[in-house]
UniProtKB/TrEMBL annotation:
Its main location: membrane. The lineage of its organism: Bacteria, Bacillati, Actinomycetota, Actinomycetes, Kitasatosporales. Keywords: Antibiotic resistance, Cell membrane, Membrane, Transmembrane, Transmembrane helix, Transport. Pfam families: MFS_1 (PF07690). This is MFS transporter. It comes from Streptomyces coacervatus.
Length: 496
């Protein structure tokens, strides 16, 4: 299978290929979209109090400004990934990016809570199409190996940088108006859209003679939407409430039907043979543990800094900045490190750093010395993100044929979002259960510690899952990747 990019010189070894200006431009457009996705997620959190005050929204309504985005994003990623494969990655990416820009403009202009929530859902929906389409454009444009590893390390670094910058920018912009935090992504998305029209390589639609898996798309999307909705609502209505239990039962039923449909469909939304690969399963579970633990940690630390220490939104954002800065600085180095050590070793090392970083944060008190107590955790977690996130993306997309890159990209992003939603809800429930009414600041801090223990445990689970992949030789590990055009499987060797 020839995976050499038409934008590079095919005669040269992949490690010696000189990137053309157009190739850099292509990567820059895709990085801009990923940067915007992460930026949008982090910016809205700091702006919520101002939004609630201006629009007179209750706490539950404010939650849906965040949850609406997660619902659209996490619920439609599987459909977004397969749509990119079937209808063309470039076309899907550009259309979704345009919708993202329009929804950003709408969100900054509305004067109604329901309309703001609707704009957030639309933005999440559009991101569910840009994220897998963008990742699959990278994996089909850059040849597997050092070339792709370098591209993915830069791409994933933009996500971490966007998340970190979103915290800082939101703190600054909210001082003027919360509407600026909603409007900021619009011009950036429009610039990326115009550049993408010129720079992104054209992709042909997949000639799927088996037709579209409409039942699988409907059932799969419904199951993901219901799962995310149930997890987001569970802390409010109760994990043991009849509503929550019935919703989880409905999710289980839908997923069972989805698997049965996919096994019988000639052109499935998700080809289940991909999950026969141990490295693929570890990548998906690792993505859930990685993002779930970090989102839970950020949630608790933000509450700790602002509610207990009285820090401003900008002060809190600056406290997180060293982690993001470390990721940004290391962006050009991670690809070569992956080439040398392989993804499994880097993911394991990263999870180990996360476990230590989270555990060290348990030392915090009501009068911490930032440099001695908080900064070490931030640096360890930043180093972990720099190692884990690019490696997970590389591991998930290695050994997968071009026409299925969108599907695998959607699956990986779904694992990230669902993991974040589930584990954040769990951490929230643990902290809420241990928080006494009218408590002293010390009692509130003590109620946060079990949540930090859970966060540390999630990262430890990710480490243990990753370590199971180190029992096989790193250089050549045989995994099963079934052809989508045939029922028989082929074996390919991938560097794991």
């Amino acid at each position: 299978m020839d995976m050499t990019s038409p934008l590079t010189t095919p005669a040269a070894p992949s490690s010696a290929v000189r990137w053309t200006p157009r190739l850099w431009g292509t990567l820059l457009v895709l990085c801009a979209a990923m940067f915007l996705d992460a930026l949008d997620v982090s910016m809205v959190g700091v702006a919520l109090p101002s939004i609630g005050s201006d629009l007179d929204l209750s706490t539950s309504a404010l939650q849906w400004i965040v949850s609406g985005y997660i619902l659209g994003y996490g619920g439609l990623l599987l459909l977004g990934g397969r749509t990119a494969d079937l209808l063309g990655r470039r076309q899907v990416f550009l259309v979704a990016l345009g919708v993202f820009a329009l929804a950003s403009l709408l969100g900054g202009l509305v004067d109604s809570g329901p309309l703001l929530i609707a704009s957030r859902f639309i933005k999440g929906l559009s991101a569910a199409f840009t994220a897998p389409a963008g990742l699959s454009i990278i994996t089909t444009t850059f040849a597997e190996g050092p070339l792709r590893n370098r591209a993915l390390s830069i791409y994933t670094t933009c996500a971490a940088t966007g998340f970190s910058m979103g915290l800082v920018l939101s703190g600054l912009l909210t001082e003027a108006s919360w509407r600026l935090t909603m409007l900021l992504p619009a011009p950036i998305a429009l610039i990326a859209l115009v550049a993408g029209l010129k720079l992104l390589p054209r992709s042909e639609r997949e000639n799927d003679h088996n037709g579209y898996d409409i039942p699988g798309a409907v059932i799969g999307t419904a199951s993901m939407l219901l799962l995310v909705f149930t997890v987001v609502q569970a802390p409010q209505v109760g994990w043991a409430s009849a509503r929550t239990l019935l919703s989880f039962l409905g999710v289980a039923a839908l997923l069972t039907v989805f698997v049965l449909v996919e096994r019988r469909s000639p052109g499935p939304l998700i080809r289940l043979g991909v999950l026969r690969s141990g490295s693929q399963i570890r990548a998906q579970l690792g993505a859930m543990a990685f993002f779930g633990s970090y989102v839970g940690f950020q949630f608790l630390v933000t509450l700790y800094m602002q509610s207990l220490l009285g820090w401003s939104a900008l002060h809190t954002a600056l406290a997180f900045l060293p982690a993001g800065a470390l990721v940004a600085v290391s962006s050009t180095k991670v690809g070569s490190i992956v080439d040398r050590f392989g993804t499994q070793r880097l993911i394991a090392a990263g999870f180990a750093l996360m476990v230590v970083g989270y555990a060290l944060f348990l030392r915090v008190n009501l009068d911490p010395v930032y440099a001695a107590v908080i900064l070490p955790s931030m640096l360890l977690i930043g180093a972990a993100c720099a190692l884990v996130f690019p490696s997970l993306n590389i591991q998930a997309t290695n050994g997968v044929e071009d026409h299925e890159q969108g599907m695998v990209s959607g699956l990986l992003n779904t694992s990230v979002q669902v993991g974040g939603a589930i584990f954040l809800a769990v951490v929230t429930a643990v902290v809420t259960a241990g928080a006494p009414e009218h408590a002293t600041p010390q009692a509130v801090l003590d109620s946060y510690r079990p949540g930090l223990v859970v966060v540390t445990g999630i990262a430890l689970a990710g480490l243990l899952i990753t370590l199971t992949g180190l029992r096989t030789p790193r250089a050549q590990q045989s995994v099963v990747v079934a052809k989508s055009t045939s029922l028989e499987a082929e074996r390919v060797s991938v560097r794991d």
